[in-house]
Amino acid sequence: MNRTPQSVTSLQPVAPPPESVTSLQPVAPPPQSVTSLQPVAPPPESVTSLQPVTPPPQSVAQPLRPIAHRLVLVSEHLCPYVQRVAIVLAEKGIPFERVFVDLSNKPAWFTDISPLGKTPLLRVDDHVIFESAVICEYVEDISPEHPLHPRDPLARANRRAWMAFGSEVLNDIAGLETTTDPSVFERKRSAIATKFRRMERALGPGPYFAGDDFSLVDAVFGPVFRYFDVFDSIADTGVFREVPRVNEWRAALKERPSVRAAVGADYPERLRAFLARKNAYLLSYSAESPS
């Protein structure tokens, strides 16, 4: 009978609730986790870093009235990057002026305002924006009532990626049209054909890149395909073989008024003259069945 008090006494230290509660208190981290997230939120800094990219303050105050500014597109007659900006401005219905420069003999006023010495430039009142992708995004921002980009951030990022892809195609075209070396020509021709086959898999039902709606991706590829309107009159490069969707897309862009108006009527003659000055291998290229 004396064992009953002992058993009760032996159980007392086994009861751990106060200790277990105490041991859990430092594990609860909500205040710390909230504190650790505070410096990660960078909106004020990101906004500040973007301010220089939006040149005129007036455009921020009046995003739906781009006509309030005088827009001058500094251009070169053959430049595909100039063309994409002209296409976007036309699609937006924004009036603009064009001034052409000879990049082989750049005037002083041009080198003074062009950090990279390249076209296009967009003069917005007294401000100058350079780089075609930046200009296109600026035009998109000041006229959101006629969007050429989707609103969804992921879809918009995807379009920007394909715009960059189009610029890579233009880099290959630059090599194709200027080289005098047959091996370089074949390497560039093959690279373009490969990119068009990759593009074939990305295209939907059409008629444009994203279906019925014309987008900034279409503005990029209109000038890409225009090159081949001239190249095809010289030789069959074979880059459009086995890409039926790309061919349909090319045909639709060729008929788009904004794409047609982006260059002068003398574009084909100017491009042929450029090829002649470069003594381009393309002018003598002949292949019955390019690989």
TrEMBL record:
Annotated catalysed reactions: RX + glutathione = an S-substituted glutathione + a halide anion + H(+)
EC code(s) of this entry: 2.5.1.18
Top-rank lineage group of the source organism: Bacteria
Segments forming domain GST N-terminal: 69-147
Residue ranges constituting the GST C-terminal domain according to the UniProt record: 152-282
Coiled-coil region list: none
Bias (Polar residues): 1-12
Pfam families: GST_C_2, GST_N_2
Region annotation Disordered: where it falls in the sequence: 1-61
Keywords: Transferase
Protein name (record): glutathione transferase
InterPro entries linked to this entry: Glutathione-S-Trfase_C-like (IPR010987), Glutathione-S-Trfase_C_sf (IPR036282), Glutathione_S-Trfase (IPR040079), Glutathione_S-Trfase_N (IPR004045), GST_Omega/HSP26 (IPR050983), Omega/Tau-like (IPR045073), Thioredoxin-like_sf (IPR036249)
